[in-house]
Write a structure and sequence with these properties.
Elements: E1 2-11, E2 21-27, E3 47-49, H1 51-67, E4 77-81, H2 91-100, E5 104-109, E6 123-127, E7 152-157, H3 160-172, H4 176-179, E8 181-186, H5 210-219, E9 225-227, H6 230-234
Parallel strand pairs: 2-4, 4-5, 5-6, 6-7, 7-8, 8-9
Antiparallel strand pairs: 1-2, 1-3
The structure holds iron/sulfur cluster (SF4).
């Protein structure tokens, strides 16, 4: 059984798949407590569901899209997210079964857990936690060595200090941006660490604006893809299933 927080259809908000209709399977539980976490409700809330049931609900959602005349190669796109999906032992089997079902499967994972058991067909989107998260000591940069060209690495940055940290991280790994897409998202640190046991932003961080981040990337000619988090623009923060 897998503990599920929610399953829903929405538009993919991040990654190179941003903007596409996608079925989200949000698993409960996370081993981190990032200062800026916006899905803290997934830490504990959830229900136990069998893999068969998840596959059935996913197939029903996919049928609905095809029945409505939406077709083609972009669907069905499925993302397994959290929380942190890799904290549950049946996640690799769920991923394998989804791939076998013909879906394009994305796995959003926080970069602190090994990914050796993940099916090679899954497109991994791996966070590397910047210092303002309060969780950067949990990063496992070694897992990036095994990523394939279609996988993506994501940095969420909110301060000067985060940006400098990422720049050094990329300098120390010059082949990373050649091997896979590197995504950069901005987060608003002035709203971080509000309850739910989240880590505080470490002292000495200077929050930056989205524009500051864009200008810094251009100034430094970094070969990264800056993205907006589409779901945060489209939907209210309190809305679930979005
Ligand atoms: S990894 Fe961090 S941002 Fe993601 S769910 Fe866990 S605490 Fe939240």
């Amino acid at each position: 059984m897998i503990r599920i927080n929610e399953m829903f259809c929405s538009l993919q908000g991040e990654s190179t798949f941003a903007g596409l209709p996608c079925y989200f399977i949000r698993l409960s539980g996370c081993n981190l407590r990032c200062s800026y976490c916006d899905t803290a409700y997934a830490f504990a809330e959830g229900r136990e569901v069998s893999i068969e049931e998840i596959l059935r609900e996913t197939a029903d959602a996919a049928k609905l899209w095809h029945g409505a005349g939406v077709s083609g190669h972009l669907l069905p796109l499925v993302e397994v997210t959290g929380g942190e999906p890799m904290t549950q032992k049946e996640t690799p089997e769920l991923l394998r079964r989804l791939c076998a079902g013909g879906y394009t499967v994305l796995l959003e994972t926080n970069g602190s857990l090994e990914l050796d058991e993940v099916d090679g067909r899954v497109i991994k989107i791996v966070d590397m936690k910047a210092p303002s998260s309060g969780e950067s000591s949990k990063n496992l940069p070694g897992i990036l060595e095994k990523l394939k060209g279609s996988d993506e690495v994501k940095f969420v940055l909110g301060s000067w200090e985060d940006y400098d940290w990422m720049k050094n991280f990329l300098r120390e790994r010059p082949r990373l941006t050649e091997r896979c897409t590197v995504l950069v998202s901005w987060c608003d640190l002035t709203r971080a660490a509000q309850g739910q046991g989240l880590k505080p932003v470490p002292a000495g961080h200077h929050p930056v604006s989205r524009r500051w981040l864009a200008e810094a990337i251009l100034r430094d000619c970094l070969p990264v893809r800056m993205q907006v988090q589409l779901h945060k623009i489209l939907w209210e923060e309190t809305e679930r299933g979005r």
